[in-house]
Write a structure and sequence with these properties.
- It is a single chain.
- The protein is an alpha/beta fold.
- The chain folds into two domains: about 1-155, no CATH class; about 175-275, 2-Layer Sandwich (GMP Synthetase, Chain A, domain 3).
- About 40% of the residues lie in helices and about 20% in strands.
- It has helices at about 1-20, 50-65, 70-75, 105-115, 115-130, 175-180, 180-185, 215-250, and strands at about 35, 80-85, 90-95, 135-140, 150-155, 195-200, 205-210, 255-265, 270-275.
- Strand 2 (about 80-85) and strand 3 (about 90-95) form a beta hairpin.
- The chain starts with a helix and ends with a strand.
């Protein structure tokens, strides 16, 4: 079941990044979006009996893992409402915004795809429990007004994008942050305007957003103000989710904290904010 916990934490983190990264073309969710090639509707089962048995198993699995997402729900409660439930033969992992927040849907889909193998592991675990490959895992993202932002479906036909997903265990925080899997997850939050990376400085885990273009001093001041405004609770809760994930994956993370840093094109610090993870 640990794989599911890690899966939930990564998904919550990606949703937070999709909302708080400083991007100029963010859009408000107005209608549901579905990833290319991923059907929103479940394929009808061959027989009523088979469908019922599999659906019952999926419901049992959802009930079994529901208590285990407490760390995720607690870490993200000020920004996201996190839930897991069965919907016929689908295990739905729902993330609903608490506040009215703009979301870049395309970046969210790209970020999820970059850790596709993690989803396949979760699907395989559900498939084994249900005794059928006619099941699916759905990442469901909901706006605060109840509008569906995205259904991302992982089923037997799912083909992951690049990225291997986060592994199960690391012997140090440095190894966790330096891993290709974690780097690809953080890096997928990059866009044409910023490059996102992570590294460790003493006991600080730095999430750095580097601007890719030259800006005047006046423009940098404006970007800095906007970035600091966006960093608020969204960033704090993303850091809390990361810390909860690290405690499952790393031997010892006591004393570590998260720092968000905005850099100019030359790598100079424009702004910095320490996350509140208490």
């Amino acid at each position: 079941m640990k794989k599911l916990i890690v899966f939930l934490l990564i998904a919550a983190l990606m949703l937070a990044f999709a909302a708080c990264k400083p991007k100029s073309d963010e859009v408000k969710p107005t209608e549901a979006a579905v990833t290319d090639g991923a059907p929103a509707e479940q394929t009808p089962s061959p027989t009523e009996d088979t469908r019922d048995k599999v659906a019952v198993k999926v419901a049992q699995y959802a009930a079994l893992v529901k208590p285990q997402i407490a760390q995720v729900a607690e870490a993200m409660k000020d920004t996201l409402s996190v839930d897991v439930y069965a919907e016929e033969r689908a295990l739905v992992m729902e993330y609903k915004y608490v506040n009215d927040t703009p979301v870049d849907v395309e970046s969210l889909k790209t970020t999820i795809s970059s850790t596709g193998e993690t989803y396949l592991q979760t699907f395989d675990e559900l498939k084994g429990f249900a005794g059928s490959d006619e099941v699916s895992v759905i990442l469901r993202y909901i706006a605060s007004d109840g509008t569906k932002i995205l259904d991302y479906v992982i089923d037997k036909n799912f083909v992951p994008g690049e990225g291997a997903g986060i592994q199960q265990h690391y012997d140090s925080v440095e190894a966790f942050v330096a891993s290709e899997e974690f780097g690809s997850t953080i890096g997928a939050a990059s866009n044409s305007e910023i490059e996102v990376s992570a590294f460790v400085e003493d006991k600080d885990i730095v999430i750095a957003s580097k601007l890719l273009a030259e800006y005047s001093e006046e423009e940098l001041d404006s970007i800095k103000t906007n970035w600091l405004e966006n960093m608020g609770e969204q960033a704090d809760n993303a850091a809390k989710a990361l810390m909860a994930s690290m405690k499952l994956l790393v031997d010892d993370c006591e004393g570590y904290s998260f720092v968000y840093r905005l850099l100019d094109k030359e790598g100079n610090t424009v702004a910095e904010q320490k996350a509140n993870i208490d």
